[in-house]
Design brief:
about 475 residues; two-stranded antiparallel ribbon; 18 helices; about 45% helix
Length: about 475
């Protein structure tokens, strides 16, 4: 080979054993994540190891491996195992060891809750680094596909038809078994096995119907409360709360009744007259997923419907760090203010105090406005779809002063119409929405890898912690 080129020699061994420290530049995300994990309190994870049998991989290494994997779009335990051979960053994290996919999967499943709990510790480190001080937050939700297909669902109407069909077939099979000429008529047919198979399916269908009926009963209870409130308003001749201000603000229960479980299921009940009693019988198209019964059919932003969960994020406006990663089975966001306020109230005092919350009209209801006010947080909730091309005179002027006895809704409407309020609310789109965009399109997280709302909630916190580590790396100059 010409002396003009650097020698490429793949055969000569290293004269000295190489160090993994030489494999990555100093300013690398993998190094940053390892350093952050070394600062976390992993005592709960370490205490779970009994110390018997062969030596286990250290939980700090496996935690860093999961954080880096989720931060860079590698979620599968098999792909993580392969990356410990193929990726220098993964080799660095694992110190040139290679935990197999069973070890990685078992660790994640066993310690999902504990790993998710590290989320708040990462926020505390962000505060210690001087990049996080609570003030204004943005709230939003996004549908994330469940680990289940929408085609693996059973509707209440189809369940009833299938149940009748199977019962009829069981009766036919039992009649065949009792007939004297069964051996000739049922050549090659194992009647006991056929009956057992259909009986098992009938049991599964019965359980599915019960779950659908339970959901219908819960929805009916909420509807009954809403109807009772309408009756009281009708008898008193009063208008619904908030109407006096000219603002169309529905209660969270009304929003939920109108949108919960998505139109594809036909599960949302139509608004009825105040004197009508809510129905308890499930609608024919109301369904339950047989793979992940806790997931729901939900409308997606691009149109259509998907078997999904509604992932919620509370994002700090200044740092764009995720302060809360919550999960709900409800398709709409109307009921998510209460858990959001509760979560913010549980954050460590050292992080500061949230004083303002920004959210779109999906979160807007009289109850939610009052919840924020009661928590000492100024709500900035859109009262409808944001208007485009606002006249210049409106953008450069403020509304007239409010009377002293103005309601919370009226005060919020006044803030939203002011120049300062419009500028502040404009930050919502540039904070919380990019977070979901990065998680889905940069990190590549578009589907959960576990089933059931508890495990899904834990994985969502793991995703948010991985996002925060990426963001913190950037804020620290990475």
């Amino acid at each position: 080979m010409s002396e003009r080129f650097v020698l490429v020699d793949r055969d000569t061994p290293f004269l000295l054993e190489p160090s993994v420290q030489e494999w990555l530049p100093e300013n690398h995300l993998a190094r940053f994540i390892v350093d952050i994990v070394d600062r976390l309190d992993l005592s709960r994870l370490q205490a779970s190891y009994a110390g018997r049998g062969s030596a286990a991989y250290h939980p700090a290494m496996l935690t860093a491996l999961l954080f880096f994997g989720y931060a860079t779009g590698v979620f599968s335990s098999r792909k993580l195992e392969a990356a410990t051979y193929d990726s220098l960053a993964m080799r660095f994290i694992c110190a040139n060891t290679h935990p197999d996919h069973d070890t990685i999967a078992s660790f994640r499943k066993r310690f999902f809750a504990e790993i998710a709990a590290l989320f708040v510790q990462v926020l505390e480190i962000a505060h210690d680094l001087g990049v996080l001080k609570l003030g204004t937050v943005s709230l939003d939700g996004s549908k994330v596909k469940a680990y289940a297909s929408k085609h693996k669902a059973l509707s209440y109407g189809h369940a009833q038809k299938l149940e009748a069909q199977l019962r009829q077939e069981v009766e036919q099979l039992m009649a065949m078994a009792e007939a004297a000429d069964t051996a000739d008529d049922a050549a090659g047919l194992d009647i006991p096995a056929e009956i057992e198979r259909r009986t098992a399916r009938l049991e599964a269908i019965e359980q599915a119907k019960k779950r659908i009926e339970q959901r219908a009963a819960e929805r009916a209870a909420e509807e009954a409360e809403r109807h009772q409130r309408k009756r009281v308003n009708k008898e008193n001749g009063s208008t619904p709360p908030g109407s006096s201000s000219g603002v169309d603000v529905r209660s969270a229960a009304e929003v939920d009744a109108a949108a919960d479980d998505a139109p594809a299921n036909d599960a949302a009940a139509d608004d009825a007259a105040a004197d009508d009693a809510p129905a308890v019988v499930p609608k024919a198209k109301e369904q339950v997923n047989l793979t992940d019964e806790q997931s729901r059919i939900m409308p997606t932003s691009g149109g259509g419907f998907e078997q999904a969960y509604n992932a919620q994020a509370i994002v700090d406006v200044d740092s764009m760090l995720v302060l809360g990663a919550l999960m709900t089975q409800k398709a709409n966001d109307a009921h998510q203010v209460e858990p959001a306020v509760a979560h913010l109230g549980q954050l460590p005092d050292k992080l500061g105090k949230v004083h303002t919350a920004l959210a779109d009209n999906g979160f807007c209801s009289e109850e939610n406005v009052e919840r924020f006010v009661a928590a000492g947080i100024t709500p900035m909730l859109a009262l409808g779809r944001e208007a485009h091309n606002i006249p210049l005179s409106d953008r450069l002027s403020d509304p007239p002063p409010l009377p002293d006895d103005a309601s919370s809704i009226e005060k919020m409407k006044h803030r939203m119409r002011s120049r300062e309020g419009r500028a502040l609310y404009g930050k919502r789109k540039s904070t919380v929405e990019p977070v979901f965009g990065i998680i889905k399109h940069v990190m590549g997280f578009r589907q959960f890898s576990v089933r059931g709302v508890e495990l899904v909630a834990a994985e969502w916190q793991l995703v948010a912690a991985a996002f925060n580590l990426r963001r913190l790396f950037k804020l620290a100059g990475g």
